[in-house]
């Protein structure tokens, strides 16, 4: 995932609401006035936001979304279509990428659908080496399928190891004192720091999370959000689903809007 733009408290609208225009690669048409404009290198983009509970209910946030949120092509700006909102609560939905050799089929779909400028030439070169090339069919032979199967297996266990028990101290909020980790080591939401691409950190983040914004990485008091997670108990042992654990939370958590504590399954995140 790559950051495009924020809206809300951390966006150019400063929480007052407004109209945003996301322009695709190669767009050279007119840009209407009155929009916060962002340009992206991909055709596919994902928009997410968080609503807050009021008096223990989400009704206000849900109603505000239905009343105010609209998304439509620029060509329909004069007559936007009606929005359809789907309540996904309680519905089965698989949002997890494959962890076997079929992951390469998913990657090929993205390469075919997006422009070349959507990814770095270096990464596209690695993909080309295994037969994933834009405009060409991905048809690995038996030999290559065996290689891809072994590669997917190695990649799966490697990324799980990197995220669950990293050796890089930048992963930890308090190195040497606690096992709580930060989602953005080095506060690098671009996955680059001091001119270096953070390969392990980038892979680890995308194993267990999605969505990137500076608001989650930088210290923006009163506006941003911070995250801490762990795969280990206080003794450094992996968390075990068959056991019961106690978490001590200090009183008066310094959170303006909300704070939460969530348990995830290691397989489905």
Automatic annotation (TrEMBL):
SUPFAM superfamilies tied to this protein: VPA0735-like
Protein name according to UniProt: DUF1214 domain-containing protein
PANTHER family: BLL3101 PROTEIN, SIGNAL PEPTIDE PROTEIN
Residues annotated as domain DUF1254: 12-73
Domain DUF1214: 226-268
UniProt-listed InterPro entries: DUF1214, DUF1214_C_sf, DUF1254, DUF1254_sf
Pfam families in the cross-refs: DUF1214, DUF1254
